[in-house]
Amino acid sequence: MPTVADLVAALESIAPTRYAESWDNVGLLVGDPAQDLTRVMLTIDYTPAVACEAAGEKCDAVIAYHPPIFKPLLSRVTASGASAAVFDAIRRGVAIYSPHTALDVAEGGTNDVLADALGLAERWPLKVSEDKPSQYKLVTFVPETSLEKVSAAIFAAGAGRIGHYSACSFRTAGTGTFFGEAGSDPTVGKSGQFERVPEVKIETVVPTARVDAVVNALRAAHPYEEPAFDLNVLGAAPEGHGIGRIGDLPAPTERQAVFERIKRELELPHLLIAGPTSGSITRAAVCAGACGDLLDQAIGGGAQLYLTGEMRHHDALKAANAGLTVVCTLHSNSERATLKRLAAMLSGRLPELPMILSRKDRDPFEIL
């Protein structure tokens, strides 16, 4: 039977969390990696309605595109208020995983789904990611008696994943030394004397997005007052990796035909449009969610149409004045189509694990 760890590994292979934006909160947010799974629900937002639906479908894991634990919206989990659904998931043993911007950047992910909806033949990132570490190597030193406890904690927090493998590490036995000065309270040995302790050096990889979680888990599980550890940069994001997409259509296409194609491909009855609504286009840009901050890249890249979820009033005016057609679907409507593709990719990796698309998940806004 597949486990939460198997699901996490599959999602990591599709949308590596190390490529998520630094402000994001991606990966396994709730759950026990060792827990067995029988059914998974996919949704954009983990709302009370979706939580109730998942319970009725007997799903023991939920993939919520938007992280339900995310500052400043949610910094604590209690039985009431905004965190009630997450609290209930923890109580019932339901795992929650969020891919968010990792899926936006991933090949075949959220923005490629939008690019496919437009029929872009050639495409490239609208904004190339800055060179940043994609992962780190964590090196720490643990007394032999605490080796498995500390290892399990850092692996559960996201360390040790390489491709389709989890809990990857290299371990070397050795001797640690210390002298406990006045005020110290060593876990082993005595304060005021030089000590030698059998220890094991653990080396493992940590995705950039999970560094804080792994270090916190290390500190919590390690028996020492001040555990020693190193974090070494291993590499940067690959060239050409980035957010959004811009590209060319196979042939000049009338805007009205593009509008109809978007509605058909994304299964939407309405679109919000600013700027020109007639004439043909040859180049378009896409970015899921709220992407007004990439408007200059779309204009500078020669796009004649920009498909996104939502945009501020003044950005829409700027686009229209530049002759750029902006097509807004409402925020989550620009992301929801990717769930079907993600479910298919996961089914290919975990064929024995049923994937269910939420029927209660919808954008909070409705056009009447």
TrEMBL record:
A divalent metal cation binds at residues 66, 104, 331, 335. One of its GO terms (molecular function) is metal ion binding. One of its GO terms (cellular component) is cytoplasm. InterPro entries: DUF34/NIF3, DUF34/NIF3_bac, DUF34/NIF3_sf, N-reg_PII/ATP_PRibTrfase_C, P-loop_NTPase. Keywords: Metal-binding. NCBIfam families: YbgI_SA1388. Belongs to the GTP cyclohydrolase I type 2/NIF3 family. Homohexamer. This is GTP cyclohydrolase 1 type 2 homolog.
